[in-house]
C-alpha cells in the first residue's frame, strides 16, 4: 500500500443517513389508526381488534406493540408531549416570545383538524372512569402547566402570578377544544383573541388573575 492509498483511506467517509426504525414507524401507524377508531367509534366502544383491523395487522401482532388501550393512550400522550415540547423549545426568547406563544396556541386550538378535539373529549371522558387514563391526563396537564407558566414568568414582571394566569388560560383552552368538538360551526377565533388580550393585560399588570389589586390599579385614586 503506497502513501497515496494510505491517505485516501484516512479520509473519513460521509456518515450514512439514519435509517428510520421500522418498529417506531409501525408504532406511529398504530397510533394513527387508533386515533381514527377513537374518533369514529368512541374510546369505550373501540376494541383492540378494531385497531388491528384499521392498521392492517393481526391482533397478536398489535399486542406486541401495545398490550392494551390504556397503553395506546399512553403512546398518544407521549407522542403529543414530544411534539408540544419541541414546539415550546422552538419559541424565541425576548420580545417575540408572547407573540410566538399566541401563534402556537392558535395552531393547536384552531388550526388542528376538528378530529383532534373529538379525540381529546373521548380521552377525557374515559379519564372519568379509568384511573390509568386519568393519571396520563393529569401528568400531561402538569407538564403543559409548567411550560406555559415558564413563558409567563419570562414575559411578565415580578408581580405576575404565572400559575394563576396559566390556570385561566388552560380552562379557556379546554373550553375551546370542547366547543370545537361539539359545535361544528364554532369559531374559536374571537375566544383566542380575548385570550390574547387577557394575557397581555395580565403581563402588563392591568389584570390580576388572583382577583387582588395589581400595583397598577392600587395606585389609582378611587372615586
UniProtKB/TrEMBL annotation:
The UniProt annotation gives the DNA-binding region as: 47-66
Question: Which Pfam families does the record match to this protein?
Answer: TetR_C_6, TetR_N
Judging by the UniProt lineage, the source's domain of life is: Bacteria
SUPFAM superfamilies listed in its UniProt record: Homeodomain-like, Tetracyclin repressor-like, C-terminal domain
GO: which molecular function terms?
Answer: DNA-binding transcription factor activity; transcription cis-regulatory region binding
Outline the extent of the HTH tetR-type domain.
24-84
Q: Gene3D superfamilies from the entry?
A: Tetracycline Repressor, domain 2
Keyword Membrane found: no
- Keywords associated with the record: DNA-binding, Repressor, Transcription, Transcription regulation
For whether the record's keyword set contains Calcium, the answer is: no
Q: Protein name, please?
A: Transcriptional regulator, TetR family
Amino acid at each position: 500500500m503506497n502513501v497515496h492509498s494510505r491517505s485516501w483511506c484516512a479520509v473519513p467517509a460521509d456518515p450514512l443517513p439514519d435509517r428510520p426504525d421500522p418498529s417506531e414507524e409501525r408504532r406511529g401507524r398504530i397510533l394513527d389508526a387508533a386515533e381514527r377508531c377513537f374518533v369514529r367509534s368512541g374510546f369505550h366502544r373501540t376494541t383492540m381488534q378494531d385497531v388491528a383491523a384499521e392498521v392492517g395487522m393481526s391482533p397478536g401482532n398489535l399486542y406486541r406493540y401495545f398490550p392494551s388501550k390504556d397503553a395506546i393512550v399512553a403512546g398518544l400522550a407521549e407522542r403529543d408531549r414530544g411534539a408540544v415540547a419541541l414546539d415550546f423549545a422552538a419559541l424565541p426568547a425576548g420580545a417575540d416570545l408572547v407573540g410566538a406563544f399566541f401563534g402556537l396556541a392558535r395552531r393547536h386550538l384552531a388550526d388542528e383538524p376538528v378530529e383532534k378535539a373529538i379525540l381529546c373529549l373521548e380521552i377525557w371522558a374515559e379519564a372519568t372512569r379509568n384511573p390509568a387514563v386519568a393519571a396520563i391526563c393529569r401528568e400531561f396537564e402538569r407538564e403543559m402547566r409548567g411550560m406555559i407558566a415558564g413563558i409567563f414568568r419570562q414575559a411578565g414582571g415580578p408581580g405576575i402570578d404565572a400559575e394563576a394566569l396559566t390556570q385561566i388560560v388552560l380552562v379557556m383552552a379546554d373550553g375551546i377544544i370542547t366547543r370545537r368538538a361539539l359545535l361544528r360551526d364554532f369559531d374559536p377565533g374571537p375566544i383566542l383573541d380575548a385570550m390574547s388580550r387577557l394575557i397581555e393585560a395580565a403581563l402588563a399588570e392591568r389584570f390580576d388573575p388572583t382577583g387582588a389589586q395589581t400595583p397598577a390599579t392600587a395606585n389609582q385614586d378611587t372615586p
